[in-house]
Amino acid sequence: MSAPAASAAPSTNNTAASPLFEVQGDKPVHYGILLFPGFQALDVFGPLDVFNSLAMLYNYPMRLTNLAAAPGSVTTHHPSTSTLIPAHAHPLSRFSENLVVDRTLEEQLKFQESTKDGARNEEAIDVLIVPGGVGVRGDVAAEIDFIKRTYPTLKSILSVCTGSTLLARAGVLDGRRATTNKRAYKWATSTGPNVNWAAKARWVVDGNIVTSSGISAGIDASYAFVALNYGEDVAESLADSAEYVRWMDPEHDPFSKRWNFS
Q1: Contacts of 214 (CB under 8 A, 6+ apart)
Q2: Residue 43: inside a domain
Q3: What is the dihedral of CA 170, 172, 174, 180, to 10 degrees?
Q4: Coil vs helix vs strand at 223
Q5: Could you give the CA distance from residue 16 to residue 177 in angstroms, rounded to a whole number?
Q6: Residue 18 domain-assigned (yes or no)
Q7: Tens digits of per-residue pLDDT, 142-175?
Q8: What residues does 120 pair with on adjacent strands?
Q9: Domain total for the chain?
Q10: pTM given for the model
């Protein structure tokens, strides 16, 4: 499919009513995904499938880099799960997925913070995707520091589920409206006392930061992100190709009621 010019998305709960970056520029839009042990699988693979399809079906220049604190691979399993959340996994269970790391956080920071002849480094990422998962309750000091140092160099951040707690602890959500997983809402919101948390929202757009509610909400937030930056017609076509029924209203959040927050 040919890539139409991105059109401005209608404002809902947004403070961004026009594209956050140029999608047909001279250089690819460089996406980075922040990985850590115990990331939630759908927080990562849901948005990535949306963007995979966008790159495959439309003629947009795009790149993806998997980022983590250490080289090698990162697993959805966290060795301290039972101490971080109430969990009752069978002791014989060995069910998890691993993603290969393309670049460490320290390596990426060098690209983010460097310029060549006053120009942005070609290896710098433009959009950072931040998933949630049980791992956000562990030692994530490196990830928080990475977000804090990287945010001023980014064009946008998309966080899913409790990934917003990493943004909150990095200080980038201070004074902003944001949302998070409703089952974990009490704990999650405690990580950002200066954040204007939305107890009833499927996703929230505030400036160049998009935050979603729990897990599957990241898919709807990703389609909304595509609509904002690449056009609603593109987002609709991608969802139809995936045979996915989108939640179109960002304020529609039955899980807020389910977990007694509305």
Answers
A1: 132, 161, 162, 180, 181, 182, 183, 184, 255
A2: yes
A3: -80
A4: helix
A5: 12
A6: no
A7: 999 999 999 999 999 999 999 999 999 999 999 9
A8: 115
A9: 1
A10: 0.92
